[in-house]
Structures are given as structure tokens and as C-alpha cells.
Structure prediction request, 232 residues.
Amino acid sequence: MIKERILIVEDEDSIAELIAFNLKKNGYETFRVDSGERAFELLNDGEKFDLILLDLMLAGMDGLDFCKKLRQVKEYANIPVIMLTARSEESDVVSGLEFGANDYITKPFSPRILIARIRAQLRKATQTEDSTSQNSIEYAGIILNRDFHEVSIGKNQLTLTANEFSILDLFMSSPGRVFSRDAIIVALHGDGYPVTDRAIDVSIVNLRKKLADKASLIETVRGVGYKMKKLA
Ligand code: CA
Prediction:
């Protein structure tokens, strides 16, 4: 079994050691750094982590800055982050969560709580793998990410035009629902935008081509419009 890798970003040696000890005991592989800068070095070197334990008060880049920066980088944006804060820093917790931390633990904490929180985050991360962003939806093996304007099927990234993307987004958001061409036009551009029915048809044709073996998911409803096939 592959051990899950946890990065501990903590500048207090005794705390970092205690955490590492408990994580190892519970079967995790641990890595320790004492600054956000160093953590980024590891990430940029290509090290992969399943979760980051992040001390809020760090010399140099603090935990909030780190979190903010982390979330701006696409490859790291989905790594769960649990912040470690002192009780007196609890007001910062709100900012931490706003900056993209998934959870926080107040020091001093019991190893049992720590492990439970880590497990919860790792479980969540596995459940939503590849679609961790709230702005990402998955249907029938197609993953559509609105933040990055990306669509992928398995390892294949599709290159879609803005219209194709919006149509797919619309369909994937309501499988089974039939959309008339007019409804699609309205959804795409708001009322009154000069897009013709014909343009929608062309977008659908191209979208189906790009979806390759998933093309049949987009069904034509004769005399009405189109819909995303609802899977049983
Ligand atoms: Ca500290």
C-alpha cells in the first residue's frame, strides 16, 4: 500500500517532531520544513503531497500568504491544507479559511484529533479527486472545470471554444433536461445576442466530434433541441 505523504510546515521543532512522530505511527509518510519558502521549493521540485499541515505563524512567508499563493498555482490548488494555530490566533482562522485552508486545529491539540482531522480531509480529497474545486463538475467521465476553463476525459484534455464550453457546461449541469436552441442561446449570451440557431447546431456538431466516444451523450430531441443523456 502506498503511504500518503504529508508535508509539515512548522518552525517549532518540538511541535513538528511530535506531529511527525504521530503521523508515522499512523502509517503516513512525513516531510518537514520550517518555512513556506522551503515548502514551495519542495513542491516546485516536483514533490507530491496528499496534505499539508501548515503553521500559521512562520518566519518569512506566513501561513496565510502561503495558502493564498498555493491556491493560485493550478497543480497545488487542490492539496488539502490544515492550519495549525495558537488559540490567540483564532481570529486569523477566518482569513485562513478564506485563503483556501480546508480546516484548522488549535494548538495544543491531541494526536487523536490531529489524525482524525487529517483522515477526514484525505477522505474528502479522494472522493472528489480531479474535481476538487467547487467550480468543477463531473458527468459520465467528463470533467469540466470552470475556474480553468478546461474539459477533460480521462487523461485527455479537450480544446473547446467558448461556446462549446458553455453548452457542455449547461448540459452537464442538468442531465436529461431538454434545451431548445433559443434556451441555449439565452444561456450563452443573455437575451438578444446575435447567435443563430445554425451557430448552435454547428457548435453541437463540433462538440460531439471533440467528445469522441462520449459524443452520443449529447442527444438530439427532434423538433425541440438537445439534451445530455441521463445515465440510468
Ligand atoms: Ca510558528
